[in-house]
Write a structure and sequence with these properties.
The chain has helices spanning about 15-25, 30, 40-45, 75-90, 110-120, 140-145, 165, 170-185, 205-215, 240-255, 270-280; strands at about 25-30, 50, 55, 65, 90-95, 125-130, 150-155, 190-195, 220-225, 260-265. By secondary structure, it is an alpha/beta fold. The protein has one domain (about 15-280): TIM Barrel (Alpha-Beta Barrel), CATH 3.20.20.70. The strands form 2 sheets. An 8-stranded mixed sheet has the order 1-2-5-6-7-8-9-10, with helices on both faces. Strands 3-4 form a two-stranded parallel ribbon. It is globular and about 45 Å long.
């Protein structure tokens, strides 16, 4: 399907941001997942760091990240991320990862080390983590929460009915459980989740996901248009009009979310600092 006129992606060029990232040897989900907002974010010297390598143990049909046997975690990676963040002059850092089902803790320890490393090198930094589901493991979730991120993010991605097609190795209730568990462990930690639309979901299903997330203690929500990153990924079923995104945003706020971003090009980590600063206090 051809993109409608309201989806205009800024092409990436050679930005100083990329040079900094390559110099420090760090990966970003912006590049690995072929995010359409790379150009805009890199031009503003922002990026979402992706730890635990670039190979994922799962193969979600919507995602462009490579699925293959991962390498062992790099013990120097937390410091590399911290140095890159400092070089970019970041005041708000977002750290995500591939899914590492091969690790006993799912990679939670590397998240905690990365948070600690960033805080040790940058004063007054704010940190958001976007974690995989850790198979719902309580100890792994607690490991990340105990490292005191300012925002704990885990995306549900789609409605329950579509999980078998979109996230075949994941489980909707497990993702809801991740948000609920994080909030139970640390009620003051801000929680966040995101969902893609345009995969064949119904409006009523989206609203039910919103309510499930709120019941689990989710504070922030992002809603964005799914865009097929590669020909081998699941195709777009429908392009959702901007006015529908605005209705989703209004409805989510009415239901009780503290902050909502909803638009065709909204992505989970994009403008994360603005959402935090506008809604955290």
């Amino acid at each position: 399907m051809r993109h409608p006129e309201w989806i205009k992606v800024r092409l990436t060029g050679t930005h100083e941001t990329k040079k900094v990232l390559r110099h420090h040897g760090v990966s970003t989900v912006c590049e690995e997942a072929r995010c359409p907002n790379q150009g805009e974010c890199f031009s503003r010297s922002t990026a979402t760091f992706m730890i635990l390598g670039y190979r994922c143990t799962r193969n979600c049909s919507f995602c462009a990240v490579e699925s293959s046997l991962p390498l062992p975690p790099d013990p120097l990676e937390p410091d590399k991320v911290a140095e890159a963040a400092r070089s970019l002059g970041l005041k708000f850092v977002v750290i995500t990862s591939v899914t590492r089902d091969d690790l006993s803790d799912g990679g939670a320890g590397q998240f905690a080390k990365s948070i600690e490393a960033v805080r040790s090198k940058i004063n007054a930094i704010k940190i958001e983590v976007l974690i995989p589901d850790f198979k719902g493991n309580y100890k792994s979730i607690k490991t990340v929460i105990d490292a005191c991120p300012d925002v704990f993010n885990h995306n549900v991605e789609t409605v329950p009915r579509l999980y078998s097609r979109v996230r075949p190795a994941a489980d909707y209730e497990t993702s809801i459980h991740v948000i609920r568990t994080a909030k139970d462990i640390s009620p003051h930690t801000l929680t966040k989740s995101g969902i893609m639309v345009g995969l064949g979901e119904k409006e009523a299903e989206i609203l039910e996901v919103m309510k499930d997330l709120l019941r689990a203690g989710c504070d922030f929500l992002t809603v964005g248009q799914y865009l097929q990153p590669r020909r081998t990924n699941i195709p777009v079923v429908e392009y959702i009009a901007p006015e529908v995104f605005e209705e989703y945003r209004k409805k989510a706020l009415e239901l009780g979310f503290r902050g909502v971003a909803a638009s065709p090009l909204t992505r989970s980590s994009m403008n994360a600092a603005e959402m935090f600063e506008g809604s955290a206090y």
